[in-house]
Amino acid sequence: MRRKLIAGNWKMNASKVQCEALISALLQNIPHSGGADMAVCVPYPYLAQVESALRDATIRLGAQDVSEHDKGAYTGEVSGAMLADFSCKYVIVGHSERRSYYGDSDEVVALKFLAAKRAGLIPILCLGETLEERERGVTRDILKRQLDAVFDRVSIAEFAGAVVAYEPVWAIGTGKTATPEQAQDAHAFIRDQLRLKSATVAAETQILYGGSMKASNARELLVQPDIDGGLIGGASLIADDFIAIATAA
Ligand code: 13P
Q1: What is the pLDDT, as a whole number, of residue 132?
Q2: What are 53-70's pLDDT values in tens digits?
Q3: What is the SS3 assignment for the chain?
Q4: Boundaries of every domain in the chain
């Protein structure tokens, strides 16, 4: 049985004061059922603060991006080792906002994936189609292309232990959620692609759904057989909403 993972992606939101309030509200209300793992992927400047606030807590820390390089003259970049230094367990790679606004190509995403692995971090590899691609009926081609680009550089042995997030671009921050059937179909397709490489890795890989997941739709998504959790944007900034999603999981 794969464990469920509920991960928040705060994106470029929060302040020191908000971090403190949000983390303390999460820690007071964390579900005790033990059914789902929880993580928060916070902006770089707040890693130290959240690391210290989460000390001894079961909520894990993550970051939202990582350099493909390990060290050196890369002004403005942050390495995997630096993230590990702040007790990060997870790092998101290939989020659609990085791909579309910052030009992270499929190849760069693969290099960032490898950089995360070298640093001992768990990459959360985001895949997903745009609305135009869905309407053209090429969703599976896009998911396959994004996944194949990683497997051009990453062996299945290196891939093992990573997390995948299916995030249809048209559902991110739009209030439009994929239906449980649409999401399950994409997740099953991704798992089938992994199965072509290794049945064990396919069976063990957590595949999260992301895109306007909230308390009111979490359960119907999370009961799907191939949906192993959520990567939550907006709703992860509101403690009650994030807790309600974790409780549903
Ligand atoms: P929303 O939950 O705000 O739609 O964001 C999803 C997302 O992009 C998580 O990475």
Answers
A1: 95
A2: 999 899 999 999 999 999
A3: CCCEEEEEECCCCCCHHHHHHHHHHHHHHCCCCCCEEEEEECCHHHHHHHHHHCCCCCCEEEECCCCCCCCCCCCCCCCHHHHHHCCEEEEEECCHHHHHHCCCCHHHHHHHHHHHHHCCCEEEEEECCCHHHHHCCCHHHHHHHHHHHHHCCCCHHHHCCCEEEECCHHHCCCCCCCCHHHHHHHHHHHHHHHHCCCHHHHHHCCEEECCCCCHHHHHHHHCCCCCCEEEECHHHHCHHHHHHHHHHC
A4: 4-248
